[in-house]
């Protein structure tokens, strides 16, 4: 996820992600039918930054390392993962992941799995690092396609570094998308309304 977490905290977060231990049962990888690739957000569809414009990276195959603090591939099939990263000039960043599964049932289970990982992320961070205090918030669901949910995560290290992230999980048919936004700050700095709009756009734009 796109938080500026210091080196000692990053190790703890990676361990936390791997400790989630949730396993999804589904048919073997490769069962997913080939279809049109889902579309991604553009830079202009991210929450506006007050002083810097967004820059979008290329759409890239694979799972983004930036989501590893809360969301990972541990216990999940090797689906068709693609992602796009976004940056501003002022240490605000974002990433969108799309995952194409084999069936709508698999996608529903995967979306719940990712949302559960995000929901429990703050507890796992604190369990795995005594140097970090973490708090999660639920910003509710969005009525888009098969649904989406938005959550927030704030972390503060013992040396005073604070980071705020917004994360969402949405689904359209057998495709799941995860969107993450983050910068230095706390919950008061989170553009929740704009991020909900971004999430709605991301899910609607998949197909």
TrEMBL record:
The stretch of residues making up the signal peptide is: 1-28
Annotated keywords: Signal
**How is this protein named in the record?**
PknH-like extracellular domain-containing protein
Organism per entry: Streptomyces variegatus
């Amino acid at each position: 996820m796109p938080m500026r977490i210091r080196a000692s905290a990053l190790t703890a977060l990676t361990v936390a992600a791997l400790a989630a231990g949730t396993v999804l049962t589904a048919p073997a990888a490769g069962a997913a039918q080939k279809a049109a690739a889902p579309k991604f957000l553009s830079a202009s569809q991210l929450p506006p930054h007050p002083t810097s414009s967004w820059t979008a990276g290329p759409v890239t195959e694979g799972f983004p390392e930036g989501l590893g603090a809360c969301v990972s591939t541990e216990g999940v099939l090797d689906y068709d993962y693609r992602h796009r990263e976004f940056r501003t000039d002022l240490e605000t960043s974002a990433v969108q992941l799309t995952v194409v599964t084999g069936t709508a049932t698999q996608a529903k289970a995967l979306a719940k799995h990712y949302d559960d990982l995000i929901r429990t992320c703050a507890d796992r961070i604190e369990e795995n690092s005594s140097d970090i205090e973490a708090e999660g918030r639920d910003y509710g669901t969005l009525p888009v396609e098969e649904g989406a949910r938005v959550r927030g995560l704030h972390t503060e290290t013992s040396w005073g570094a604070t980071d705020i992230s917004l994360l969402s999980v949405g689904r359209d048919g057998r495709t799941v998308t995860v969107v993450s936004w983050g910068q230095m700050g706390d919950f008061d700095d989170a553009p929740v309304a704009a991020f909900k709009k971004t999430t709605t756009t991301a899910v609607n734009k998949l197909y």
